[in-house]
Amino acid sequence: MAIPFQFTQGDTITWDLAGSVNYANDSVTNTNYTCKYYLRSINGGALTITGTNKGNGWTFELTSTQTSDLEEGKWQYQAVASKTGASDEVTLERGVLTIDQSLVYTGSNPGKVDLRTDAEKMVEKVEAALLAIVTNKAEEYTIGDRTFKYMDIGELRRLRTIYKSQVSREQRADKIKQGKGDPFINKLIFR
Question: Are residues 120 and 165 in contact, defined by beta-carbon separation less than 8 angstroms?
């Protein structure tokens, strides 16, 4: 079982990594190498996990406490095997994973949570700007660092199309990732 590409804050995560070979085709196993996963986030978060021996490779665990402390979002990871008593290091695996916000709460007031993507939030903002301008409630509207005027309706519509397309792609990828199939292909098949 490989490192999961997505999990939720507070989850306990375990995975295995098999032994491999280095650039010289020499065996890289737990008999003479230790292996660590390095996780890094865009905001400076970092975590190192040291593997324990399993077969000729290693097993890794992130506890519930550790994952609770990790910020939500994209993280990069790199598995590095280091030879005991030597200066030989080998990257065995590298990639990106996503940590989702936990929905678990205590007490009677859970507070708000917004799990929309940035594209979904932008669609809402652009549609609000269009509505305000079209109904003449506003001569101009600001989204982020851009200001749109009544004459910029075409540009707002173009932005709306771009962000709606991005939302569709994200939703399609999410359905595929959840094992629900490709909604685009399903729509073609069941017409």
Answer: no
